[in-house]
Amino acid sequence: MQKQVIFLMGPTAVGKTALAIELAQRLAVDIISVDSAMVYRGMDIGTGKPTLAEQKQAPHQLIDIADPIEPYSAAQFCVDAKTAMQQSWDRQRIPLLVGGTMLYFKALQFGLANLPAADPELRAHLNAEAMQIGWPAMHAKLQKLDPVTAQRLNLNDQQRIQRALEINILTGHPLATSFAQQTANALPYHVDCFALLPESREILHAKIAQRFKQMLDAGLVDEVERLYLRGDLSLQLPSIRTVGYRQVWLYLNGELDYSTMCEQAIAATRQLAKRQFTWLRSWAHLNNIKNSNQLALDTIINSVLNSSKP
């Protein structure tokens, strides 16, 4: 059997999960989630995670595999995804990778730079220095060491400034040099890449607002409160900085009122969608599909069937 791979990408709230489940009823595919937040247990409503009924109808791999306190990286995703893909091929099925974490898609298809692992002692030192001089000053420090990376980072992007400084100190060269060395881990298979797109940005923005309201009605605040009351989680963790969770966390902490929390969560989700569109615009050999389920189904099914012909 030829090793087929399908990527189904798209901005948040566009309907990727529903389309993937429909595809699973029509094709011999295994759904593999490509979502940096769905990996976390106990983060269901705010991530748009498929319900238990949907998972029973069409099982999803790589969800609920980590605790919110645990780090989960693009490198770890690549390892897990390749294992899941091989299991699909062993069962004579096609891996269907679905989600909106574009970095994970890119890392899987094109490989990751060979970057050093996090150094807890160095990271603690950088955090202590940042507490004294502030992250804008740390950004200025990065500007001297790695101006290319510094130029594309926000002055207060703590996580990425810290990581860029850490890599520079550990390797002795800028982050861009490390990325230039990546080649070995790219997928050696043809990938059919599809992007499910909304009919317009305005329609997507309306869906984002509507979906956040539905999440609130479904108990999002209670879900975040359970995480908040654990006592071992904080906004320093990538899991809690997830769009929606961060804003509800600030509300529970008394830093935002309810109305402002809603406004900021919806605005942050729109910004996430904007970043996802930016990734998609530069993606090579991408098949764009407007958000019409029947058209999307037919397009993907025909592509898969044609690819499987000898």
Provide structural commentary:
The protein is α/β, with parallel strands linked by helices and 310 residues long. It folds into 2 domains: 5-112 and 183-307, P-loop containing nucleotide triphosphate hydrolases (Rossmann fold, 3-Layer(aba) Sandwich), CATH 3.40.50.300; 120-180, Histone, subunit A (Orthogonal Bundle), CATH 1.10.20.140. The protein has 14 helices and 6 strands. The protein has a 6-stranded parallel beta sheet, sandwiched between helices. Helix 1 (16-26) crosses helix 14, helix 10 crosses helix 13 and helix 11 packs across helix 12 (245-252). It is globular.
Write the layout of secondary structure elements.
Blueprint (H helix, E strand, L loop, with lengths): L4 E5 L6 H11 L2 E6 L17 H6 L2 E2 L12 H17 L3 E6 L2 H9 L9 H14 L1 H11 L1 H5 L6 H14 L3 H6 L10 E7 L3 H18 L1 H9 L16 H8 L5 H24 L4 E5 L2 H15 L3
Parallel strand pairs: 1-4, 1-5, 2-3, 2-4, 5-6
